[in-house]
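Have a close read of this protein, sequence plus structure tokens, and explain what the tokens say about the fold. Thanks in advance:
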Amino acid sequence: MHSALFEFLTQSPTPFHATQSLASTLTTAGFTELNEREPWQLEPAGQYFVRRNDSSIIALRLGQRPLTEQGLRVIGAHTDSPCLKVKPQPEINSQGYWQLGVEVYGGVLLLPWFDRDLSLAGRVTFIQDGQLQSRLIDFKTPIAVIPSLAIHLNREANKGWEVNAQKELPPVLTQLSGQEEKDFRALLAVQLHHEHGLQNIQVLDYELSFYDTQAPAHIGLQQDFIASARLDNLLSCFVGLDALLSADGQQASVLVCTDHEEIGSSSACGADGPFLKQVLRRILPNEEDFNRCIQRSLLVSADNAHGIHPNYADKHDSNHGPLLNQGPVIKVNSNQRYATNSETAAFFRHLCQQHNVPVQSFVTRSDMGCGSTIGPITASKLGINTIDIGAATFAMHSIRELAGTQDVVHLTKVMTAFYNSVELLS
């Protein structure tokens, strides 16, 4: 299981690549891709998936019973992670070095980005023979770095400093020779030729992100932990897909992995957009049938939780400090930053008990702010009963995060049981 997770993480440096990887696995498993621009001919008990913007995906198993009687078992996650994105006119020539201007995407923990071996990946849109096309690219090898300033030139560095995103984050790609000028779009055209064999193209625009090339790894004397980029939230995407494919297929099941969660989900393909509702309405066009189905359904919003850090234990409520490798975390917030309520929490807790999976709870300190997920957004869009859960994690939003080795097993086990559940909430 871990080797497959590591492969997925490596193949998914951007939401575009994550969605492509999920779609490829679904196709291999016999799911049929649907095109939103075409009519849908759905078969009873059929297996389908649909993509939007190449960065969000919904997979469907229609099950053996009418949807109005069995409802939907929905697992939701997100494909995006905080990162540094390349600006539209990024070229910076400074002191004989070629750099690229970047924009901070989401709530990035910035300091760990310094002195890392960075590569670049994403989607490029171009014209070839008068036709507008897009392709995914991934340089894979380290092509850039953001060097730290030496301690000798900043004696206060270890006392902490505020990173200036405009001035301090542009990565260095190469040295320039004399008055040499670099053209970033020309570089992308070369990469498109290298990866896809494309010639005579004009690169028009792109959505590209830098990422850390260090491979996922087991960490710890007993391989207690998994260290990797983008565990938030590709771990949940992977577990959701594995659970969907491992389930018996008797119950109507949905996996939804959407983009833009880290910046609020407000987009055509984000959880705060119409994507999920539009897909479900095409399955259930009758409004009464749709409403009946939704009221029999349950959404498990799976997004990483904050594990209690041994060096910063006072950042947690003393009664709600989840431990790594101790099972899924039920996330609760009375101000609806998480959508969990007593009934959905009880259902999930009981499900864990039935399948011998340990389970924990997280509530943020009362004197601290609380993050959020796609859970409350999707609940408010659909009116669906929802619970927020996730695997306990260290260093969330860092370039390299840490999760428990056993929690991947725990989470997959209970998620598979959820998809197999005959009865949801009464």
